[in-house]
Design a protein that fits this description.
4Fe-4S; about 425 residues; 5-stranded mixed barrel; OB fold (Dihydrolipoamide Acetyltransferase, E2P); binds FE3-S4 cluster; single chain; Rossmann fold; Methylthiotransferase; binds iron/sulfur cluster; alpha/beta; binds S-adenosyl-L-homocysteine
């Protein structure tokens, strides 16, 4: 028998890309490829890219540069570029990088196996009318207690800074019946926690269900202990979804709700279509429904036109909310977006604001971690820890927890009391 071919995948960007990489690996698995962690032994290298900020996008070219020698030594090795840079730059990647054999956008990767077999260099960045998920193999190989499930893709919001509406296309929801089936299949393979994914996941509307409706139905699946969803937009945070946080025990008390800025002037320039007061009002309602909810967010500093006063309004909003964590980004002008036409804030000013905001967020994160000491948490074990007899998993609040548990196994859901906390993890004793 022929030895199986080896596929090396590197994934950048958001969880949606992580999910896509899994699905591409499965599609190639049906063609006899097995995954490898060692790029040198690969018959095919696939880079699943992100276009969101300039730095993320440039990583593709530095990685391709590093692959050049390997490809020279092994000309039969295929090199593929997938994801959002593939979508944004398409054939330009083939022109700039002779070692690349194929470029495939996020909506056409079900065609990957055919592209790999075809003669010559290939590009496919269409938004095909058929649903790629219909053309992908069943998720047979999945292992592990947690899984991502893409329920919605694309975005119609057109925030002035963002490339996602261009790279992922218009908002599309997958049919609820198929998502329920995929969830049942995952649970049958041992998955106990599912994170529903979408660029605008709470805008989900498939087969007459809202996201809240889908969550309520998924919560009926026997053996599915935990549900999460990400990423949400404040304007789609409906009352029914807030109510689900109060009423569905499987829905974890954790919400990533990006606000980007605390200044109404900047929110308007960003085309976010809500004010800081509207956001704070929402946070109030969510906390009323689920008092122990842990909130996280994304922020952009140095958006064109941001003054010191605007930035101080962001700091004020952060103090008012009190986050468990947040991603803070320095604004990056992206080709083709409206904000890229505007005069940028000086780089050193943006850097200083980034530091100030990150300092505040770090202090809030440490306080949230510290507040867990003495509390009982539920931990879903994801893997053995570094110390003998130790297991690592996530709490309801998505905090990493180390538990001393010599008989614990991956996939166990246990109760433990937190004994100490550092910035990124908790230690707990089994109850
Ligand atoms: N759909 C999600 C997030 C998509 S991108 C949402 O609407 O919130 C993830 C984060 O990247 C964004 O929340 C934003 O904070 C950041 N981001 C997007 N474009 C950016 C840019 N041009 N410069 C800096 N950060 C950016
Ligand atoms: Fe980008 Fe805004 Fe859409 Fe989020 S809502 S993906 S930030 S355009
Ligand atoms: Fe990046 Fe595309 Fe996700 S641009 S953040 S990989 S949707």
């Amino acid at each position: 028998m022929e030895a199986p071919k080896k596929l090396f995948i590197k994934t950048y960007g958001c969880q949606m890309n992580v999910y896509d990489s899994e699905r591409m690996a499965e599609a190639m698995g049906a063609e006899g490829y097995v995954q490898t962690e060692t790029v040198e032994e690969a018959d095919m290298v696939l880079l699943n890219t992100c276009h969101i900020r300039e730095k993320a996008s440039e990583k593709l070219y530095s990685d391709l540069g590093r692959l050049r020698n390997l490809k020279a030594a092994k000309p039969e090795m295929k090199v593929g570029v997938a994801g959002c840079v593939a979508q944004a730059e398409g054939a330009e990647i083939l022109r700039r990088m002779p070692l690349v054999d194929l470029v495939v956008g996020p909506q056409s990767y079900h065609r990957l196996p055919a592209m790999v077999k075809a003669e010559g260099r290939q590009v496919d960045t269409e938004f095909p009318t058929e649903d790629k998920f219909d053309h992908l193999p069943q998720r047979k190989g999945y292992r592990g207690p947690t899984a991502f499930l893409t329920v919605q893709e694309g975005c119609d919001k057109f925030c002035a800074f963002c490339v996602v509406p261009y790279t992922r296309g218009a908002e599309v929801s997958r049919p609820a019946s198929r998502l329920l089936k995929e969830a049942r299949d995952l649970v049958a393979r041992g998955v106990r926690e599912i994170t529903l994914l979408g660029q605008n996941v709470n805008a989900y509307h498939g087969e007459d269900r809202t996201l809240a409706g889908l969550i309520r139905e998924m919560a009926q699946i026997e053996g599915l202990d935990r549900l999460r969803y990400t990423t949400s937009h404040p304007n789609d945070m409906g009352d029914d979804l807030i109510a689900a946080h109060a009423e569905v025990p499987q829905l974890m008390p954790y919400l990533h709700l990006p606000v980007q800025s605390g200044s109404d002037r900047i929110l308007k320039a960003m085309n976010r279509k809500h004010t800081a007061a509207h956001y704070l009002d929402l946070i109030g309602k969510i906390r009323q429904a689920r008092p122990d909810v842990l909130l996280t967010s994304d922020f952009i500093v140095g958006f064109p036109g941001e003054t010191d006063q605007d930035f101080q309004e962001t700091m004020r909003l952060v103090r008012a909310v009190g986050y468990g964590a947040a991603y803070c980004f320095k604004y990056s002008a992206r080709p083709g977006t409206p904000a890229a036409e505007k005069t940028p804030v000086p780089s050193d000013v943006a850097d200083a604001r980034l530091q100030e905001l990150q300092g505040l967020i770090l202090a809030q994160q440490q306080a949230a971690q510290q507040a867990m000491v003495g509390q009982v948490v539920e931990v879903l074990y994801e893997k053995p820890g570094r110390l003998p007899g130790q297991m690592v998993g996530k709490s309801q609040h998505l905090m990493a927890v180390h538990v001393q548990d010599a008989t614990g196994k991956t996939g166990d859901l246990v109760r433990a009391r937190v004994t100490s906390a550092v910035t990124n993890s908790l230690s707990a004793v089994l109850l």
